[in-house]
Request: fold
Amino acid sequence: MRSNGPPQARVNAMKFAVIQFPGSNCDQDCVAAINGLDGLRAEYLWHKETSLGNFDAVVLPGGFAYGDYLRCGAIARFSPIMKTVISDARAGKLVLGTCNGFQVLCEAGLLPGALVRNRSLRFVCDMVTTRVEVDDSPFTHRCTKGTLLRLPVAHGEGCFFADSETLRELNANEQVILRYADKDGRIVAEANPNGSIENIAGICNRERNVFGLMPHPDRASDARLGSADGAKMFLSMMETIRARRSTRAPEREKQVA
Reply:
């Protein structure tokens, strides 16, 4: 699964933009994880850029983006590139936000709810188990419902919170993609590393093309790191993009004809 592939294959690979904010520290992890998968190519994109060019997908990495001392993601969401991320996301482009990236997505209004201080008031760095709640999203269709994914977490403000109405909508629309679970797949308080409401680890928007999660799939994309479960998300994204391309190809041929 992990290969740089022949030069031509890399040229034709699907392109992922990994946004670099001042303070990002998981951008290199994301680029390395994505570039280690056949058919994918990741490149850094500085936060002051204003175009996503011909990128097929966007990744907002973890870290401590500038201005986080006010509120996580509250300042980064005003970076020039975010205007384009928001417009492209609303047009259907796949956007993945991990850890700090999840916080930025919430602050930018692309995802509902908020990430607040861990209930323990302590920074948590550990390997956790998450359960796939939705198996037909662009990010998880490589998994069956109930699949357990081992992913690392490293955050101080990872407690997901939403008001009762928002929570009701998230559940009704099947927007809760991942929940923290124990090794047997049970959703129990003991498996929750940060106190997130209903053990929520990751959610998507109603259109299902924007996904935010506190765990780090980028740090679990190589078995040598203890888990390769995170790679399933990147590969699911690749297959979604490929399917979209194949659907659009006949439409373009008709237009040319």
In short: The mean pLDDT is 93. The chain has one domain: 12-256.
